[in-house]
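Fig. S4 source data, part A: sequence.
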Amino acid sequence: MNLLPALHDDAHVMVCGASQGIGLALCAALLARDDVAQVWAVSRAATTSGTLATLADQYGHRLKRVDCDARSEQSLQALASEVIESCEHLHLVISTLGILHQDGATAEKGLAQLTLAGLQASFATNTFAPVLLLKHLLPLLRKQPSTFVALSARVGSIGDNRLGGWYSYRASKAALNQLLHTASIELKRLNAASTVLAIHPGTTDTKLSQPFQANVPDGQLFEPAFSADRIIELVSAHGPSDSGSFWAWDDQAIVW
């Protein structure tokens, strides 16, 4: 199956949040494909990551490691400038950026636990960083087939919210979904072959989920490699006609 529905050439891909968890698994899975020419692995410490170094030893020049703090527009602008120097077009960009209980963010159980600092931390990484990444990479997505994916979460669905709690995480992902949907409309005007997707990868065995894994039903905690494979399958299955939509790991549409 082609990496993108209408792509028949080798792909140039970027993974942002690439040094651990799903992002690292995506880098490994994409590099293992014969139809991927190059993977740009982006994270705050990409060039010092031991795991990315191991992939670099295996795949050589096909892996480009770039340090970038996606919460900084200056850093994102520098990232885009570096990529543009050696790459005319990115066929696929995947943002795995997200926090739940770090950098001041918490999984609040009630209104009394809400803080301005927690809200700001959640929105900075979960909402603002992915859409600003898209903004700065836009010149690289304006021709040929291109897909931009950001990992969202089912708990960001307003229509599916029956349990409450997790105020800042839910709200930041809901806001991300709206930004992605809005961006998909603009990108379609600029590039009819563009696709923007929000994807819920399922509960994956990463640092984000570790404090809550005891509550996950048997069989519903996924290894990062499994989640990466499912994300790639979704990317392959959904093209421009599905741009601006929200999908779960099992290829089921999620209500907004």
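Fig. S4 source data, part B ends here. The mean pLDDT is 93.
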